[in-house]
Amino acid sequence: MQNTKAAQNIWQVIMASSAGTLIEWYDFYIFGSLSVIISEKFFPASNPDLAYIATLATFAVGFIVRPFGAIVFGRLGDITGRKYTFMLTLLIMGGSTFAIGLIPSYSSIGYTAPILVLLLRLLQGLALGGEYGGAATYVAEHSPAHRRGYYTSFIQTTATLGLFVSLAVILVTRTMMSPESFNDWGWRIPFILSVLLVILSYYIRIRMEESPLFAQLKAEGKTSKNPIRESFGKKENLRLVLLALFGAAMGQGVVWYTGQFYALSFLQKTMHIEFVQSNVIIAIALLLGTPLFIYFGHLSDKIGRKKIMMAGMLIAALAYYPIYSVMDRTANISLKQEITDQYKIESNIVHNEGVTVTTTSRVHTYTDGTVLKETEVPVKDGQPEIKKELTVSTPAVALLVFLVFLQVVFVTMVYAPIAAFLVELFPTRIRYTSMSLPYHIGNGIFGGLLPTIATILVTSSGNHLAGLIYPIALALICFVIGMVYIREKPIGELTA
């Protein structure tokens, strides 16, 4: 009876933690999923490439401040408790996301628009910096030692599921209205809807109890008075923090963002794949790959965390270039034969934020089923912008889904075991702070900057594959450091 009650309790803990964390990731990733549209709404239209890079930079700011959130909320979590800390992060995240959906566009309020977006992204990043460490620690401290990798892997699914849910909500919203209406105001709906999810998650989390290990520590008066000083002021613990960062989290971060966000950015901005089709490709690949988080989390309980993470980094670094080469060739129209008698010119009247413009589109059809639509959009005080939109054939979609799925497999290998790995590395009294900082530097800075750095490399060089230099280099560096310096403890052993 006691074992049955314990099993029920751990699943309640997982469900409550995962629901809130999934919603926070959903909130955080709507911005990235809609980055192309946001670049048009909140930045000057005179230079589309610069506007897109500025949007990615604003997106990255949310990642850059995550380590600061890890310090602020990690300290709070190690002093007052896990539960109430990530209740607070949930409310900050939800409020910021809702507010982004209400900000007027650049055409209405000028530079105030991108400034407001930037401030709200800062709040989102701070909140997320405190969320993950709390959720992972909370679940791990409820888990039996021999199944910690398995149970914490459910928390690991929430980041990918949050991205999947954001894509699904965007796609449903997009298909329920015309492209013009979605680009005009419909893109705001996923942001505004998030407030309902946050209220639901808050209701679930408020009923949770504190982590038993932390509750015991607090009852005995053994909680840390200054978790930041203990985490980073003591040489032996600082060494563990640096190893966790440069031997695990840095490589995990770049693999995670390459396999999901950069893949989406590459499809939309480099390959010019049509909006719905590109999101469907990513969504299917994520749906197929998500169960592997559970598999590799379970496997880490059998063979150890380090082996799986290091293998994922190495395989990813070796496979990225050939994978993206094939992806790029799929959209290379110079390799395709056009059906010249199907060429046509279309004119459309578009209403966008109260302004009526006429656009001209040149539609090219190719023998393999690819359709290229080049639309000339008038730009105020500038040269007309040529927007390319490529719709690829069904076989090409299947190939692209497979290639993105391979990248998701690498993601699951590096990401599934890392929560258990980090939790087991640090002592209970400073665990929230100690594990949160390397995780959020690895993911927030090294990983979060990846789309921006990669896009700049591609734009400046003209080489579609130049952006891969960054993730390949960091994954290999992390692999070497992890293999040489990390000594894995017995599976499931927690530091006292």
TrEMBL record:
<dbReference type="InterPro" id="IPR020846">
    <property type="entry name" value="MFS_dom"/>
</dbReference>
<feature type="transmembrane region" description="Helical">
    <location>
        <begin position="278"/>
        <end position="296"/>
    </location>
</feature>
<keyword id="KW-0472">Membrane</keyword>
<keyword id="KW-1133">Transmembrane helix</keyword>
<keyword id="KW-1003">Cell membrane</keyword>
<feature type="transmembrane region" description="Helical">
    <location>
        <begin position="12"/>
        <end position="38"/>
    </location>
</feature>
<feature type="transmembrane region" description="Helical">
    <location>
        <begin position="465"/>
        <end position="486"/>
    </location>
</feature>
<feature type="domain" description="Major facilitator superfamily (MFS) profile">
    <location>
        <begin position="13"/>
        <end position="490"/>
    </location>
</feature>
<feature type="transmembrane region" description="Helical">
    <location>
        <begin position="308"/>
        <end position="327"/>
    </location>
</feature>
<keyword id="KW-0812">Transmembrane</keyword>
<feature type="transmembrane region" description="Helical">
    <location>
        <begin position="238"/>
        <end position="258"/>
    </location>
</feature>
<dbReference type="InterPro" id="IPR005829">
    <property type="entry name" value="Sugar_transporter_CS"/>
</dbReference>
<feature type="transmembrane region" description="Helical">
    <location>
        <begin position="50"/>
        <end position="73"/>
    </location>
</feature>
<feature type="transmembrane region" description="Helical">
    <location>
        <begin position="109"/>
        <end position="129"/>
    </location>
</feature>
<feature type="transmembrane region" description="Helical">
    <location>
        <begin position="397"/>
        <end position="425"/>
    </location>
</feature>
<dbReference type="InterPro" id="IPR036259">
    <property type="entry name" value="MFS_trans_sf"/>
</dbReference>
<feature type="transmembrane region" description="Helical">
    <location>
        <begin position="185"/>
        <end position="204"/>
    </location>
</feature>
<keyword id="KW-0813">Transport</keyword>
<dbReference type="Pfam" id="PF00083">
    <property type="entry name" value="Sugar_tr"/>
</dbReference>
<feature type="transmembrane region" description="Helical">
    <location>
        <begin position="85"/>
        <end position="103"/>
    </location>
</feature>
<dbReference type="InterPro" id="IPR005828">
    <property type="entry name" value="MFS_sugar_transport-like"/>
</dbReference>
<protein>
    <submittedName>
        <fullName>MFS transporter</fullName>
    </submittedName>
</protein>
<feature type="transmembrane region" description="Helical">
    <location>
        <begin position="437"/>
        <end position="459"/>
    </location>
</feature>
<feature type="transmembrane region" description="Helical">
    <location>
        <begin position="150"/>
        <end position="173"/>
    </location>
</feature>
